[in-house]
């Protein structure tokens, strides 16, 4: 085969078919070579064949600049080069602020970590951290397929963050999108076959038909936000586990990783685990870890309740205790019903009155025997969760229905009486008056309580599960612009950024799952908040809320001992566990395990590589802003900076050439860069014109690359870089091989007597598996080919030192 022309190597700029292209990679065959090119207008990828197409190396045009600009450009070139290039520079065109700790997960994944758990505190930008990972992957593998699973209320925020910060257009998937795409593609093509970023809700992706189509696709990256809501045993976890088994990389995100349940934590950290796979790498950083000196002040304000409220609480304690101990066959349904009543009574007597009255109506109207059903009261992730579920209220609690009717009538009367003297409401009114014009957010768990407060407090904005996504966005924008008083339920406790004006958060009641407290306070205690945040949680004295706080401290100590972190108030109690504590007593509470999972490796707060990556990206952004860096369609500037300076006793006459050495894979992926300085001593006269300077520099440029490749420092650097690159390739190969060897479970087929539908279905499944295995085989071959690194050197700056 004819050798490629001189200078036509991966990374070089070549002229072919009348245009300038960057040669990303060369793939050798028996009688030809594939030349993978990038460029054109608009930028696009092309594959040409040598020797049928004959590219030639494009000359790097010298550009005469001032000595100061030459020195600055050479210094920047050295600064953005290094032993290993942790990240590709794709995201420098975006508007995202470059923070080293946010780059650390992307650097870890680029270095070979294939399963990450992003568990930083609320407000530290975990969405941005995941965005860096996605941006870097797409820069390295433009044909990658990425699936991002998030709660339904966060889809809009995720799409906006990816578009604004990284210029990534995500496909927002839902039922309408699926119907449209299926109608437009051939029958034998899956809806997820095209490369790109797919963004869908957890509950949409868990649907049986959607989950089946997801499992038929190999994914380059799976990102799961609020992963604590998709742990085992749930349909969400089952669907995500199937996708993770087909994913080359898995990233899970949660601010509350461990709730004291080892099995739940293990199911989250083992998502996507393969035989002999490396442990999940967990990033768990606090504000102090990332250098934020602001303090958070959290007050638990005890509120003494009235005699009528105390009577309601005592009656509810007796009634719930009876139901807990003497419920009929459907014990779980009855327990959920009284748990709901206890929680709503602690929120407000008005909310309790409405639920008690509704429960009485449902039990009186029940004509048929009660049919037990699966009740999901807690942690549903449903935006309408601030409304009482009818199924829970309809569950009978006592075998003697007449007795239960009398109990409910007495409780309803007590709740109506207590509603007229709500102690928390009076306390909140005085608190809002004392804050003056300071913006305040009041969180409550239930919409009934919100509406009651809206009628007694000054004019306010409202956020609850009954609003559409557009209406919520409008309320958020108005509050950030004007401030005031905002009343919100937990439907607004995820995904909203309210730190622009507000720093005061009031929790009207203590949630039985204190992870919600962290979510609520995190709406204002996040990046961009310049003042100390004040959080006030109202606690009704002499009620079950006292018991919740007492056990919170004990759980907090256990989680801190397990994770080794100084966590803030987080997921240390779940609703179901708290229900046992409040109603049945602490004797029913099991002890937490000492170690949640042996498969987690903690990562340092911010690694050295993350700081290096941040410095390089910042430098590249400055270069681009000054017009000294090429457009996003190119990875290097084709111009060579040339300047001239008079010789001195510190700098002898001759030439100083800055040469950038780049190590690439066969496909052109940049693995590392390094800049070295070559000094040639000789007599040189001062160039009389810029044209003469460019002519002199051109002669030097022609011989510099070959000399640089022979410098021992460069060969030692390439050998060390190859070892680091080899470890990353081995990690990826191990996972790809495990996925390649994975076999689908055997399915028994019953042939039909009059048709072959069952056999055709089995054949389709077999064809699908063969296609997936073929894709794994191709990826294994590509990774094996990527082991070899090619070195290319080119001058980036020439300084003429004249005597």
Describe this protein's structure.
- This protein has 803 residues and is an alpha/beta fold.
- Among the domains are: 1-58, SH3 type barrels (Roll), CATH 2.30.30; 84-283, Tandem AAA-ATPase domain (Rossmann fold, 3-Layer(aba) Sandwich), CATH 3.40.50; 296-303 and 422-542, 3-Layer(aba) Sandwich (Rossmann fold), CATH 3.40.50; 307-419, no CATH class.
- It is built from 24 helices and 24 strands.
- The strands form four sheets. It has an eight-stranded parallel β-sheet, sandwiched between helices. Strands 14-19-18-15-17-16 form a six-stranded parallel β-sheet, sandwiched between helices.
- Helix 10 (307-326) runs antiparallel to helix 14 and helix 11 (331-347) runs antiparallel to helix 12 (349-364).
- The longest helix is centred in the C-terminal third of the chain and has 30 residues, at 712-741.
- The chain is elongated.
Q: Which helices and strands occur, and which strands form pairs?
A:
Elements: E1 13-16, E2 19-28, E3 33-39, E4 44-50, E5 56-57, E6 62-64, H1 67-80, H2 100-110, E7 115-118, H3 126-140, E8 145-150, H4 155-166, E9 171-172, H5 175-184, E10 196-201, H6 202-205, H7 208-215, E11 221-224, H8 235-244, E12 250-253, H9 262-269, E13 280-283, E14 296-303, H10 307-326, H11 331-347, H12 349-364, H13 390-393, H14 401-419, H15 423-435, E15 440-443, H16 447-456, E16 461-463, H17 469-482, E17 485-488, E18 504-507, H18 515-521, E19 533-540, H19 544-563, H20 575-584, E20 600-602, H21 608-625, E21 640-646, E22 654-664, E23 670-681, H22 690-709, H23 712-741, H24 757-785, E24 790-802
Parallel strand pairs: 6-21, 7-12, 7-13, 8-10, 8-11, 9-10, 11-12, 13-20, 14-19, 15-17, 15-18, 16-17, 18-19, 21-24
Antiparallel strand pairs: 1-2, 1-5, 2-3, 3-4, 22-23, 22-24
Helix pairs in contact: 1-21, 2-3, 2-21, 3-4, 7-8, 10-11, 10-14, 11-12, 12-14, 19-20, 23-24
């Amino acid at each position: 085969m004819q050798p490629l022309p001189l200078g036509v190597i991966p990374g070089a700029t070549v002229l072919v078919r009348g245009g300038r292209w960057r040669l990303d990679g060369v793939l050798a065959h028996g009688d030809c070579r594939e030349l993978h090119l990038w460029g054109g207008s608009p930028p696009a990828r092309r594959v040409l064949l040598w020797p049928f197409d004959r590219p030639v190396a494009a000359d790097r045009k010298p550009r005469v600049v001032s000595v100061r600009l030459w020195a600055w450009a050479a210094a920047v070139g050295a600064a953005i080069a290094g032993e290993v290039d942790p990240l590709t520079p794709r995201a420098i065109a975006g508007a995202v602020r470059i923070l080293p700790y946010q780059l650390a997960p992307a650097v870890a994944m680029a270095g070979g970590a294939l399963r990450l758990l992003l568990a930083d505190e609320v407000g530290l930008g975990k969405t941005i951290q995941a965005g860096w990972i996605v941006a870097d992957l797409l820069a390295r593998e433009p044909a990658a397929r990425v699936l991002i699973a998030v709660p339904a209320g966060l889809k809009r925020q995720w799409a906006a963050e990816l578009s604004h910060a990284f210029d990534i257009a995500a496909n927002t998937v839902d039922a309408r999108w699926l119907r449209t795409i299926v109608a437009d593609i051939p029958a034998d093509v899956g809806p997820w076959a095209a490369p790109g970023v797919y963004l869908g809700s957890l509950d949409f992706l868990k649907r049986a038909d959607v989950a089946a189509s997801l499992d038929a696709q190999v994914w380059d990256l799976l990102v799961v936000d609020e992963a604590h809501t998709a742990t085992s045993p749930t349909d969400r976890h089952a669907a995500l586990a199937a996708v993770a088994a087909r994913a080359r990389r898995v990233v899970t995100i949660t601010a509350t990783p461990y709730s004291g349940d080892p099995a739940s934590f293990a199911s989250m950290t083992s998502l996507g685990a393969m035989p002999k796979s490396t442990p999940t790498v967990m990033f768990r950083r606090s504000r102090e870890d990332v250098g934020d000196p602001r303090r958070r002040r959290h007050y638990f304000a005890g509120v003494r309740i009235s005699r009528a409220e105390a009577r309601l609480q005592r009656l509810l304690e007796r009634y719930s205790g009876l139901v807990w101990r003497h419920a009929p066959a459907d014990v779980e349904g009855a327990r959920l019903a009284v748990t709901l009543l206890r929680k709503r009574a602690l929120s407000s007597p008005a909310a309790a009155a409405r639920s008690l009255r509704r429960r009485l109506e449902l039990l009186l109207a029940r004509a048929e025997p009660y049919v037990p059903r699966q009740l999901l009261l807690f942690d549903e992730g449903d935006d309408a969760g601030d409304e009482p579920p009818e199924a829970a209220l309809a569950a009978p609690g006592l075998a003697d229905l007449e007795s239960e009717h009398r109990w409910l009538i007495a409780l309803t009367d007590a709740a109506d009486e207590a509603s007229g003297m709500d102690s928390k409401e009076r306390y909140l009114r005085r608190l809002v008056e004392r804050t003056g014009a300071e913006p305040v957010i009041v969180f409550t768990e239930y919409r009934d309580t919100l509406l009651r407060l809206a009628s007694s407090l000054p004019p306010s904005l409202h956020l609850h599960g009954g609003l559409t996504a557009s209406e919520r966005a409008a309320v958020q924008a108005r509050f950030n612009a004007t401030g005031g008083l905002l009343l919100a339920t937990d439907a607004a406790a995820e995904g909203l950024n309210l730190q622009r004006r507000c720093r005061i958060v009031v929790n009207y009641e203590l949630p039985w799952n204190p992870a919600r407290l962290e979510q609520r306070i995190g709406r204002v205690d996040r990046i961009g908040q310049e003042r100390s945040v004040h959080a006030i949680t109202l606690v009704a004295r002499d009620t079950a809320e006292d018991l919740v706080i007492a056990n919170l401290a004990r759980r907090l100590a256990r989680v801190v001992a397990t994770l080794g972190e100084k966590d803030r108030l987080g997921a240390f109690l779940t609703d179901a566990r708290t229900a046992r504590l409040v109603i049945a007593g602490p004797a029913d509470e099991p002890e937490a395990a000492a170690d949640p999972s042996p498969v987690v490796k903690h990562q340092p707060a911010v690694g050295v590589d993350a700081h290096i990556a941040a410095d390089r990206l910042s430098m590249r952004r400055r270069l681009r802003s000054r017009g000294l860096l090429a457009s996003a369609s190119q990875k290097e500037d084709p111009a060579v900076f040339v300047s001239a300076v008079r010789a001195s006793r510190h700098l002898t006459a001759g030439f100083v050439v800055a040469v950038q050495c780049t190590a690439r894979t066969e496909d052109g992926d940049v693995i590392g860069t390094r800049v070295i300085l070559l000094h040639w001593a000789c007599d040189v006269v001062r160039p009389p014109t810029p044209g003469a300077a460019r002519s002199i520099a051109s002669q030097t440029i022609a011989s510099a690359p070959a000399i640089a490749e022979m410098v021992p420092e460069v060969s030692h650097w390439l050998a060390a870089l190859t070892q680091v690159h080899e470890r990353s390739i081995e990690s990826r190969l191990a996972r790809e091989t495990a996925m390649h060897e994975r076999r689908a479970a055997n399915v028994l087929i019953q042939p039909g007597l009059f048709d072959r539908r069952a056999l055709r279905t089995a054949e389709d499944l077999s064809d699908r598996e063969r296609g997936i295995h073929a894709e794994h085989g191709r990826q294994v071959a590509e990774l094996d080919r990527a082991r070899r690194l090619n070195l290319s050197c080119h001058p980036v700056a020439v300084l003429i030192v004249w005597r």
